[in-house]
Amino acid sequence: MSSIYRRVFPRALALGAMLLAALPAQGEQVIKLTAAAGHPPVFLWVKILDEHFIPEVDKRLAAAGGKYRIEWTKAYGGTLAKLGNESTAMKDGISDLGFVATIFEAAKFPLQNVTYYAPFGTDDISVVSNAITDMQKRIPAMNDAWAKNGLVYLGGAALDTYYLFAKFPVARIEDLQGKKINAPGPSANWVKNTGAVAVAGTLNTYYEDIKSGVSDGALTFATGASSVKLHEVAPYVTKVNFGSQYAGGVAINKGRFDKLPAEVKRIFVDAGNAYSVEFAKAQSALANQRLQEMVKGGAKIADLADGERKRWADALPPVAKIWGAEMQSKGLPATEVLQAYMNALKKAGARIPRDWSN
């Protein structure tokens, strides 16, 4: 064997092995999908999508024999789909799969926002997430919202319960008299008839609003409040427990989903269910962790007594009835949705101070 042959042949074999390794396995079908979200992965709903849902799909496909493999392209933080425009990006085929924040797309998903019009529910994230997921299966109008936007719903996410973060302590509803509270959108209803005044704002403005005196406090959830260090200017945290609120879910472009092999469809649905479970668990743990961190940072946390919680709930106008009438006028079964949601809370044993379906 010549010296050139001895040098070249092993290299050729190594190169051939590398090329073979780069090729798909025999019979393997590669499916290209783009996952997108308006928020960056620092937000848990995107983090779980990236670190749990996608790996779960990959793992289940491999366990099923490796006949199919997803080649993922990831575009988070609004790089492909802007916040509030995720459903349109998926519908138009700009992205294939991602997280749709229904709280920012209320016009397209009006019934999914029922939780915001039925405050004082439960702090159990999984109960709220499971309730909405089940209602979407049983109430055609709720599922139609996804279908009309060219999507298939896979799994949901609910935020941890809302509390009051303020400059002042609250033990009774009278303590709210004359106070200005950041409570945007539907949550503005949560302070009506309490003596407080709702002030518009977002998580991005709460800190400066309170610091500058534009407001005296804000209604928000612990994981959101901690992200902007709200306790530094609003150290009194009253655990009013307005309830966990449904935020949105993972969805996939319907056209893309319909073309997937039946086996792959099942895996996506199963991974979606697993996403809902994992998110609820992770969000609950994170909320508890953030509260503990805020206490170390000087926050003074107190539970609102059950009797005062009921007084607060009873003081509010019939926000659910007003919302329901508006939805019904548009041909949407809000009464059925509200009743189903309240029934789900009762079945789960939630302490409800006011039944909004009555």
Summarize the structure.
This protein has helices at residues 3-22, 44-63, 86-91, 125-138, 140-148, 203-212, 222-227, 254-259, 262-296, 306-315, 319-329, 334-347, and strands at 29-36, 68-75, 97-100, 151-159, 162-166, 180-182, 197-199, 217-221, 236-239, 245-253, 300-303.
Give me the secondary-structure topology.
Elements: H1 3-22, E1 29-36, H2 44-63, E2 68-75, H3 86-91, E3 97-100, H4 125-138, H5 140-148, E4 151-159, E5 162-166, E6 180-182, E7 197-199, H6 203-212, E8 217-221, H7 222-227, E9 236-239, E10 245-253, H8 254-259, H9 262-296, E11 300-303, H10 306-315, H11 319-329, H12 334-347
Parallel strand pairs: 1-2, 1-3, 6-7, 6-8, 9-11
Antiparallel strand pairs: 3-10, 4-10, 5-8, 5-9
Helix pairs in contact: 2-9, 4-5, 4-9, 4-12
Question: What does this 3D model show about the protein?
Answer:
- The structure is a single chain.
- The protein has 12 helices and 11 strands.
- It is globular and about 70 Å long.
- Helix 4 (125-138) packs antiparallel against helix 9 and helix 4 crosses helix 12.
- The protein is 45% helix and 17% strand.
- The protein has helices at residues 3-22, 44-63, 86-91, 125-138, 140-148, 203-212, 222-227, 254-259, 262-296, 306-315, 319-329, 334-347, and strands at residues 29-36, 68-75, 97-100, 151-159, 162-166, 180-182, 197-199, 217-221, 236-239, 245-253, 300-303.
- The protein folds into 2 domains: 26-158 and 246-287, D-Maltodextrin-Binding Protein, domain 2 (3-Layer(aba) Sandwich); 162-240, 3-Layer(aba) Sandwich (D-Maltodextrin-Binding Protein, domain 2), CATH 3.40.190.
- The relative contact order is 0.15.
- The chain is of the alpha/beta class and 358 residues long.
- The model is unreliable at 1-10 and 12-24 (pLDDT under 50).
